[in-house]
Amino acid sequence: MRVVDGELVGGPAGSPAPQHETPVPASASPSSHPSSGPRSSRLYRSRHVRWVARRPPEAIPARRRTGPSGPRPIPRYVYVPRWGLRDAPPEATVDSRDPFEELTATLLSALRLLTAALGFAAVVHLLRYVLAVVNRSVPVAGWTDRATAFLVIFGGLVAFGVFVYASVVFARWIIVLRADAYRRHHLRDPRPRWQIAVLAAVPLVNVAGAAILLHEVARMRDDLDAERTRSRLTKLWVAWTVVNVLALVAVVTRTVAAVSGSIQTSANGLAAVVISSAVSGVFAWWLGKRLLTVFGAPQDEPVPARRWVAVA
């Protein structure tokens, strides 16, 4: 409780005077102090007496810290925060490229690569053949023999690896070609994929198997001229047969030459490999163009070179 003395507040005229507050303990009450007469009673009943409630010092709670005293730590997240602005997902781009066209381009590239590999093998075998012919009359240096032997082995391995790659691509191309031909009639290919792969990729088997598969496609394609397509596929099959016969002869001759150990037989085997590799390389280049002409490009009606006009 605080007591403001009326005499200090001002006189009867109400003139201002400096105020002075006399603190009185909160536990004190008017009855606890002896009355000092009319002045004391008038003092406690005066309008200048104001009661103020305060806590004892031991009951006042300690002030809370509003924040850390040191620098604020950088927030770390163990996951990507999802709050804030969200980016719109990118629109999925539709691939407009035809898988058959892509596979056709891959097949053409594989056949051209096979042509280059077979050409390299033919050249290194030809060098080896020339060295064998010269060695019949004049001894050759040992390093030339070792170098040509290494090139022959390396060229053969490269040609074989590219041949396997081209065979796999050719089998995939035939699978997609047949699926597209049967899909035009709302049908599914009656042959399983493993059967198509065996007929198209296995050497010697594909001589007849590839021809059967391509003829079945030609019968299902209504946009192809039946007579022209059959004629082109027949020529293709004949050339394929000749290439495989030459390759088989070269393999047999080369094997016999390796077993016999004769220089002449070895030279004959090298000559057979040179001829077979050269012919196979030319056939691989021609095969890509022929397949693209028969199945890839639209066929126009044949235009006769000479027209007969009836004269009345």
Concise account of the structure shown:
The chain is mainly α.
Structural commentary:
The protein has 312 residues and is an all-alpha fold. The protein is built from eight helices and three strands, in the order E-H-E-H-E-H-H-H-H-H-H. It has helices spanning 6-9, 38-44, 99-135, 142-183, 193-201, 205-220, 226-260, 263-296; strands at 2-4, 21-23, 49-50. It has a three-stranded antiparallel sheet. Helix 5 (193-201) packs across helix 6 (205-220) and helix 6 runs antiparallel to helix 7. It is elongated and about 145 Å long. The N and C termini lie far apart (144 Å). The model is unreliable at 8-35 (pLDDT under 50).
- How would you state the average pLDDT, rounded? 79
Structural class label = mainly alpha
Number of helices: 8
Largest sheet: 3 strands, antiparallel
Low-confidence stretches: 8-35
List the helices and strands and how they pair.
Elements: E1 2-4, H1 6-9, E2 21-23, H2 38-44, E3 49-50, H3 99-135, H4 142-183, H5 193-201, H6 205-220, H7 226-260, H8 263-296
Antiparallel strand pairs: 1-2, 1-3
Features:
312 residues, mainly alpha, three-stranded antiparallel beta sheet, 8 helices, 59% helix, elongated
